[in-house]
Amino acid sequence: MITTLPLPEFYPTISELENVKEYVLSIADIHAGATFTSENNEYSLDICKERFETLLGETIQFVQDKNLSKIKVIEMGDSIQGLLRLSDLKLNESSVVEATVFVSRLIAQFLNELSAYCYVEYYHVPTSNHSQNRPLGTKASEIATEDVEYVISHYIKDVLSNNNRVTVNLNSGKEYIKIPILDYNAIAMHGHQIKNIKDSLKDLSQLHREFYDFVFLAHYHSGSEMIVGESIINDSEVLICPSFVGSDPYSDSLMVGSKASCKIFGFDYYKGHTETYKILLN
């Protein structure tokens, strides 16, 4: 049975930035369950837990430095390593089931402890590629709804159901989740569905018949920020979030690795995206 987490000791929140600025923390490509040692990185379940402790401390410090009363958190998918191919059997430290419960609990504890210092609006993208189940020889995304991100996100919502400082936002059955940021429209998805990154904002706006100012993507493991247009007061941007897991032997073979990290994006009511803070995890 899933039991709710005990509530932390809440501290009062006071902010002078309310309705003028908002901050969004991205957590992408955790790949819980994977274990490896590469040129500049190593990973395991224990290291994954240590990185969440580092991320929590850095985020609390950021909230206190900025005197924030609220922060938004986006979980961008690939929460587990999963079993996409037979080679994952060698890479995985635990079963998919164990990794699913492990990372669900880690994220929930992170949000619960962060809520002691501010209100948290949590968004979880509904689907990603590594979290897919591919039974009976099915191909990628052929049964896209068979995705353990559904289990992880609902587990988090259930165990935090008594915490009024954490709001969990889900969009089950879709491949994206919309995120209101001040008066801007933003959308987040894992990114494995995107064929052309530069055109993703335009294509998604046309598909949904709704203009987006910002698109958050993961999947590519290296962070970048791409201006793809402008309005009267702000740039329209595609924001690619770096990976929690960092470089691995495969990225080393391609010589394209990057540090394990998370980013906090700052948005101004009048200027759009104006700040980016990188939290290094290794």
Q: Could you explain how this protein is built, in words?
A:
The chain is α/β, with parallel strands linked by helices. It has one domain (21-280): Metallo-dependent phosphatases (Purple Acid Phosphatase, chain A, domain 2, 4-Layer Sandwich). The protein contains six helices and 13 strands. The strands form three sheets. It has a six-stranded mixed sheet with strand order 6-5-4-1-12-13, with helices on one face. A hairpin with a 2-residue loop joins strand 7 and strand 8. Helix 3 (96-114) packs parallel to helix 4 (149-159). The longest helix has 22 residues, at 45-66. It starts with 20 loop residues before the first strand and ends with a strand.
Summarize this, please?
The protein is of the alpha/beta class. It has six helices and 13 strands. Strand 12 and strand 13 form a beta hairpin.
Mean pLDDT: 90
CATH architecture: 4-Layer Sandwich
Largest sheet: 6 strands, mixed
User: What overall form do the CA principal axes indicate?
Assistant: globular
Helix content percent band: 25-40%
Structural category: alpha/beta
CATH topology: Purple Acid Phosphatase, chain A, domain 2
Instruction: Compute the number of helices.
Output: 6
Report, as a whole number of angstroms, the end-to-end distance.
Answer: 35 Å
Instruction: Give the spatial strand order of the biggest sheet.
Output: 6-5-4-1-12-13
Number of domains: 1
Low-confidence stretches: none
Strand content: 25-35%
CATH class: Alpha Beta
> CATH superfamily assignment?
Metallo-dependent phosphatases
Helix-strand pattern, N to C?
Answer: EEEHEHHEHEEEHEEEHEE
Radius of gyration equals 18 Å
